[in-house]
TrEMBL record:
InterPro entries, per the entry: DUF1468 (IPR009936)
Annotated keywords: Membrane, Transmembrane, Transmembrane helix
Origin species: Pseudonocardia kunmingensis
TM region(s), chain numbering: 16-35, 47-69, 90-122, 134-153
Superkingdom, taxonomy of origin: Bacteria
Protein name listed in UniProt: Putative tricarboxylic transport membrane protein
Pfam (any one): TctB
Domain DUF1468, chain residue ranges per copy: 23-158
Length: 164
């Protein structure tokens, strides 16, 4: 005897439409980024100026198309739901405050410290589990981005008083 199937989850129509709108914006941004990257002049350097924007544009396009396809698939079974989560406005204000703090503290504390704080604040505001792993992932992400841009690509990021 098999177990009964769980009832299908009702997806909020507002969320599906917002996801579709974000996907469409990402596709538009992808086209703009790819066109701009294609217009960059060629150089004799090993890594040319389009080395980063071109893959970013392609990634934007892939993710945007995926969001549109997912939204199209979910729209027929989408229903009315609660379009806002509890304290959504406070979360948005918290994210904006985190970005402003990042911009103000970046020259003083350096990229790795301020980016770690930004990533941790964003994760916590978006309901990540509150344990040491959030800080570890935030620091790891900030350190990898710093190493890739500062050391591999050669784009200098603010180092702060500790040299990173």
């Amino acid at each position: 005897m098999s177990a009964p199937e769980p009832p299908a989850l009702v997806v909020d129509r507002h969320t599906v439409l917002a996801t579709a709108a974000l996907g469409a914006l990402m596709l538009l941004a992808a086209v703009l980024v790819i066109v701009d990257a294609a217009r960059l002049p060629d150089t004799s350097a090993v890594v040319g100026p389009a080395a980063v924007p071109m893959p970013v544009g392609v990634a934007l396009g892939v993710v945007g198309a995926g969001l549109l396809v997912d939204s199209r698939r979910k729209l027929p079974r989408a229903g009315a739901g609660r379009p806002w989560q509890a304290h959504a406005a406070l979360r948005v204000l918290g994210l904006v405050a985190s970005l402003v703090g990042f911009a103000l503290l970046l020259p003083v504390l350096g990229y790795v410290v301020t980016a770690t704080a930004l990533f941790v604040a964003a994760a916590l505001l978006l309901d990540a589990p509150r344990d040491w792993r959030v800080l570890a992932w935030g620091w790891a992400l900030a350190a990898v981005v710093f190493l890739v841009f500062d050391r591999l690509i050669g784009l200098t990021l603010p180092a702060g008083p500790w040299g990173f």
